[in-house]
Amino acid sequence: MTSSLPPEIQSVFDRFITTEYTTIDAKRQPITWPLTPYYSLGEPCIDVTTGLGYPKKANDSRANTKVAMLFSDPTGSGLDDPPMVLVQGTVEVDDRDLEANRARYERETVEKLPAVKDMSPPDFMKRFFTWYYARIYMHVRPERVYFWPGCDVSQEPQLWDAHMEEVRSGHDEEPESEPPAPVGGASAWDQRIEELGRLHKSAALSFVAPDGFPFSVRLPMKVDPTARLIRLDAEPVGVPLAPGLGCITAHDHDERFTYQRNFQVRGDLVQREGGWALAPHKLVGGFELPPGSLVQRLRLNYAKTKRFRKVAKRELERRAQRTA
Question: Does pTM surpass 0.90?
Fold first, then answer.
């Protein structure tokens, strides 16, 4: 499908540093994280990758192959006024050869993000970072592509659909299903939520659409600590909002990707006082390298790194037992 898309959309896939990648977990909760996309013009898939030490994205992708990729932050792409693009597609998880994936990742990362080379540990130390450098790839084959010229959500998005022999080959539209119901209960508030609307003027909202695919769109956000709500500061035209489980993901990075910050808030997507809002139930911080010294970054990620190492060790042992 990608080869039939306009060049301006293919350039988004190729040039963007981050895409907001959404999976659906066993509880039908959409979960969105920023990842670096890898795409060659005309190729059938857009690839993203995750480390062996934090494989949940890959595990959820394998269990439910309906995923989404939102291209909404052009920082570092070098593109002038690109559209916002949403890809809904099916994914294949590739962890058959972790060493080949490692080599590919190290090569492509430096090609796409040259500044990362200076931040990487020397080769002799990389064996201590297996949790990161042993990579799992997710190959996403687009089935539907929405795009908003000028990122204007007040206008209905334009649509390219893969029902034209290229992916589903004669299948009808996906049957509609009930979205996951809101959990309800009291909201859980985290001080970091108040970065929305201040540090992060907009964020990616994700939810499960009626056809079972994740749907994502970047919107301005307003924080309402009194009501314990994150209010959507725009109502996008043509977006199938409905009460259910939602995820708001905020992230930022510089032009060269020498720093990155991110977190997500999971909760209930609800209508309140004539508008839409997310009632937060859980804030999850990602693996971050914020502006600051190496010592500060190590301190920030120490606990996460210990956990990632344990997970990677367990994953390697499981694979060894499987091939024994």
Answer: yes
